[in-house]
């Protein structure tokens, strides 16, 4: 426990006890940087889509133990100063000095430390922990602290909106300011009167959903204006709001629009020119459900919707049907999620100051309106000893250090609005969390979806929060409790006792979690004892964030509370290049499970080749579950994720950022079950995502055809007998035995294939053969049949442009990035094939009418030049370069034998992968439902309720 000595407080508060900081990680007389091996590296980051250089800085200095990926992300995102100028940071030492220096100096100036020696120890311990990747602050700290910019340290914000136009316009403005800084905000719109209520002027109100349109458009505009990442926002509506039905259906209805637009040929892909016409796409939506509503769902009872102006029930709905509509909408488009209002407010430490009505965009920060929270995450794998025991003592000391630093940051922090600043300084909300839980469990031989795994996770979380609040109570004894504590003293103490009681109820399974739980019990006892005397410095202390970018900074295998994503990883190498590696937790897990070295090597080799453990030599089936991952051949079942969240939730001040992924074949009833169990198990928030639910697909024309047939039958008697006209049948124009052709290899979304196109000697496409999939497979057979049908039709005179018009923009998997510089994105293999054929065999005029242009033509068009001139130059060059006696079969790439091509596909796909997601897809033959990074073009991977890019560290909205 921290000792205290006399120190002078601030602002005339008199004598207070200062914190006596103990050395744990550092050595007296040795600077923490001197305990690290440093090396200089060159950072060059390219955009995979076009090969352009996104970022370049040579000669940066980092510890030799840091990966190239972590180096690139930190140098490109967190180093300050213009690249190429003397002011530009070039060493991790400079970055850590800039940030840690501000924390230490502020702590000294505000009476946190007992002496200058304690301040120096704090400084050294903090720098050691950051350089050694023991933990990391959230991104805004690295962006802003110690610079000339505003010292914003928070990534999470909650706003408020009242039922006035002035308040609504303030909401738009405040969100815009927060988005501009690269952070996200959440808001509950339930105070706005519904569209079923009257205005004071006598007209009908617009309702909250209508005002969501303006906020969504604002977020989309700011997103495209060059912020550090896309605007992230959360919109919440209470379940008893009269417009709840419209709110629930909002995004599902827009998803239908996206599909219709795509089928009509509009560009609604990521960054597409027509996607801006689709609304509500920049926010996560959540319904705030009450215990009363959920009990009505259980009973199949009616539920009342209340007026915002009078508080009276103005309509009733079938609770079970409304719950079904929520699940159905989420099944269709992943929104809305649910937030369990009574559970959230039952764990609220400051209810006398207001209810908790909303959350940040990822749902982990839940507290008062107009407040913010700064985050930090601990790298759990760093506390696994060589003997594979969890180092409880060092974990406790690091938690003390981090909580102290985080509280200091609120003292010097700037905030986007004065209201947020006032609330945050008054309640001092913190969000300590962790990453690498999944890797820790696997390394120690615990299955993620098991009682043992949940016991370890719960014990660690209880220890972290107990230590955090104990430290908060000690800091309160030095500089005083938070300003709102006196008003909420009884409620705060009640919640502390609830946490401690949950810890007492925790049942341990093995020796590891028993040791951690014993330490947690001591921490909660100290927390209650010291807090009873001093109060607490912080209204909130802990939560579990997605740890996207900072997870890469710490070289974490897994983010937040997530399990391992896959067993094979993508690793960048010093000096360029990359390689596939097997997760390093696997050998440790096998050793802990009792396997010998020769067995371990054989199993690891099998995993490297196959990406999973099923039928691995010598691996016992009962151990398969230890290696279950978020994706792959053996994936963790949805309730496994929910039960893990439920295990740790009682030990968190806030909530958990996590999306429960379910397979594409999941039903609406499955969603209902998951949402119901989330409430029953005591979660605070829950979101569910079904694979491919947001992927548009061609709509069936059967209904239209049936309707036309029915209409024809009804009017048949009224029509005159049609005149019989003889029509000449088309004549098939066969290709000669020897004809010019070309073979083009391609990759679409990681799937490889080949197009062989034969032409008539006097020009004109006459046949197409498409190869995709292994010879003899169903897919290969279907593509062969499709090729024959297209070829015969071409020979009967069907124009190629007819096929291009019909098949471009057809959407199905595999889809995504291609290796063709002229066609960077394809909606499907068929979409790619007919775009390529159009570029090779149609004139510029025919192609431009169909919207198919080459890369050079698009560049000319964007520059205001005439694309037809570019096309003419290319055609002239091609004619002059072509040999006069062109022979048949000009193969541009790939083996001549189709069987050889098929057998080399998987190997090449792995070699060309750029992220762990793409390696997993290549190994196991499925497409991961994840977006492409808008910064570098590589496929992202899930991170909490967001996505993170392994290539450049960008996230889809979370820190």
From TrEMBL:
Coiled coil: none annotated. GO terms for molecular function: cobalamin binding; cobalt ion binding; nucleotide binding; ribonucleoside-diphosphate reductase activity, thioredoxin disulfide as acceptor. Its EC number is 1.17.4.1. The keyword Oxidoreductase applies. Residues 43-133 form the Ribonucleotide reductase class II vitamin B12-dependent N-terminal domain. InterPro entries: RdRp_reductase_class-2, RNR_2_N, RNR_lg_C, RNR_NrdJ/NrdZ, TSCPD_dom. It catalyses: a 2'-deoxyribonucleoside 5'-diphosphate + [thioredoxin]-disulfide + H2O = a ribonucleoside 5'-diphosphate + [thioredoxin]-dithiol. Residues 697-722, 882-912 are annotated as: Disordered. Belongs to the ribonucleoside diphosphate reductase class-2 family. This is Vitamin B12-dependent ribonucleotide reductase. The lineage of its organism: Bacteria, Bacillati, Actinomycetota, Actinomycetes, Streptosporangiales.
């Amino acid at each position: 426990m921290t000792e205290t000595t006399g120190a002078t407080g601030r602002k005339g508060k008199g004598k207070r006890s200062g914190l006596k900081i103990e050395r744990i990680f550092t050595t007296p007389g040795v600077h923490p940087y001197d305990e690290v091996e440093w090396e200089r590296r060159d950072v060059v980051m390219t955009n995979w889509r076009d090969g352009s250089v996104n970022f370049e800085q040579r000669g940066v200095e980092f510890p030799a133990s840091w990966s190239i990926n972590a180096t690139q992300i930190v140098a490109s995102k967190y180093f300050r100063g213009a690249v190429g100028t003397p002011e530009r940071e070039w060493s991790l030492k400079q970055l850590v000095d800039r940030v840690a220096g501000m924390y230490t100096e502020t702590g000294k100036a505000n009476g946190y430390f007992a002496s200058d020696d304690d301040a120096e120890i704090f400084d050294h311990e903090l720098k050691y922990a950051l350089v050694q990747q023991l933990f990391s602050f959230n991104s805004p700290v690295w962006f802003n602290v110690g610079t000339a910019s505003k010292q914003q340290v928070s990534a999470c914000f909650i706003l408020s909106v009242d039922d006035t136009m002035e308040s609504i316009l303030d909401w738009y403005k405040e969100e815009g300011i927060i988005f501009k800084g690269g952070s996200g905000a959440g808001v509950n719109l339930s105070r706005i009167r519904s569209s079923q209520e009257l205005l004071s002027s006598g007209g009908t109100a617009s309702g909250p959903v209508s005002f969501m349109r303006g906020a969504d458009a604002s977020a989309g505009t700011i997103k495209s204006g060059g912020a550090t990442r896309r605007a992230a926002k959360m919109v919440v509506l209470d379940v008893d709001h009269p417009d709840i039905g419209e709110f629930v259906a909002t995004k599902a209805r827009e998803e239908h629009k996206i599909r219709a637009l795509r089928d009509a040929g509009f560009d609604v892909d990521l960054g597409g020119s027509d996607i801006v016409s689709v609304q509500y796409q920049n926010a996560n939506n959540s319904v705030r459900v009450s215990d009363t509503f959920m009990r009505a769902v259980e009973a199949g009872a009616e539920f009342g919707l209340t007026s915002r102006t009078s508080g009276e029930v103005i309509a009733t709905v079938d609770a079970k049907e409304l719950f079904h509509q929520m699940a159905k909408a989420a099944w269709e488009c992943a929104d809305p999620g649910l937030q369990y209002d009574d559970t959230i407010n039952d764990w609220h430490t400051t209810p006398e100051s207001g209810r908790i009505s909303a959350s940040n965009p990822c749902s982990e920060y839940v507290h008062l309106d107009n407040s913010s929270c700064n985050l930090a995450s601990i790298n759990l794998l760093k506390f696994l000893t060589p003997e594979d025991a969890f180092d409880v003592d060092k974990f406790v000391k690091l938690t003390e250090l981090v909580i102290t630093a985080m509280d200091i940051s609120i003292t010097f922090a700037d905030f986007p609005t004065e209201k947020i600043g006032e609330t945050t300084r008054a309640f001092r909300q913190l969000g300590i969390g962790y990453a690498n839980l999944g890797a820790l469990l696997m390394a120690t031989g615990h299955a993620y979806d098991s009682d043992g795994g949940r016991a370890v996770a719960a014990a660690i979380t209880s220890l972290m929060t107990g230590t955090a609040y104990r430290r908060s109570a000690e800091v309160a004894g030095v500089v005083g409790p938070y300003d709102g504590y006196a008003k909420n003293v009884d409620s705060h103490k009640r919640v502390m006792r609830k946490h401690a009681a949950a810890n007492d109820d925790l049942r341990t399974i093995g020796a590891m979690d028993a040791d951690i739980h014993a330490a947690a019990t001591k921490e909660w006892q100290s927390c209650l004892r010291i807090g009873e005397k001093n109060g607490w410095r912080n209204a909130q202390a802990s939560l579990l964030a997605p740890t996207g970018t900072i997870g890469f900074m710490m070289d974490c295998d897994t983010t937040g509370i997530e399990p391992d994503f896959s067993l094979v990883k993508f690793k960048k190498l010093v000096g360029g290049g990359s390689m596939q590696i097997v997760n390093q937790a696997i050998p440790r897990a096998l050793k802990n499970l009792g396997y010998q070295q020769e067995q371990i090597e054989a199993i690891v080799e099998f995993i490297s080749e196959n990406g999973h453990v099923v039928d691995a030599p010598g691996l016992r089936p009962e151990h398969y579950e230890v290696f279950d991952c978020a994706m792959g051949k053996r994936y963790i079942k949805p309730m496994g994720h929910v039960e893990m969240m439920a295990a740790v939730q009682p030990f968190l001040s806030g909530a958990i950022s996590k999306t429960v992924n379910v397979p594409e074949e999941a039903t609406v009833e499955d969603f209902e079950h998951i949402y119901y169990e989330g409430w029953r198990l005591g979660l605070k928030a829950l979101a569910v995502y079904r694979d491919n639910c947001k992927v548009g697909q061609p709509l069936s024309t059967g209904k239209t055809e049936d309707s036309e047939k029915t209409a024809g039958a009804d009017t048949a008697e009224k029509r005159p007998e049609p005149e019989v006209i003889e029509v000449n049948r088309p004549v098939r124009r066969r290709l000669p035995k020897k004809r010019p052709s070309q073979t083009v290899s391609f990759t679409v979304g990681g799937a490889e294939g080949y197009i062989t196109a034969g032409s008539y000697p006097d020009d004109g496409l006459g046949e197409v053969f498409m190869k995709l999939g292994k010879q003899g497979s169903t897919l290969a057979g279907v593509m062969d049949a499709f090729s024959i049908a297209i070829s015969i039709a071409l020979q009967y005179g069907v124009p190629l442009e007819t096929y291009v018009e019909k098949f471009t923009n057809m959407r199905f998997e595999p889809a995504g990035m291609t290796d063709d510089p002229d066609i960077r994105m394809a909606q499907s293999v068929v979409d790619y094939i007919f775009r390529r054929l159009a570029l090779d065999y149609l004139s510029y005029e025919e192609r431009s009418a169909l919207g198919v242009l080459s890369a050079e033509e698009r560049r000319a068009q964007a520059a205001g030049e005439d694309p037809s001139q570019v096309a003419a130059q290319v055609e002239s060059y091609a004619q002059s370069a072509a040999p006069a006696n062109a022979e048949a079969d000009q193969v541009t790439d790939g083996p001549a034998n189709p069987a050889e091509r098929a057998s080399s596909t998987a190997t090449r796909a792995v070699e060309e992968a750029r992220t762990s997601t793409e390696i997993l897809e290549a190994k196991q033959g499925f497409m991961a439902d994840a977006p492409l990074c808008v910064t570098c073009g590589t496929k992202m991977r899930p991170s909490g309720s967001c996505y993170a890019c392994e290539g450049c560290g960008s996230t889809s909205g979370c820190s």
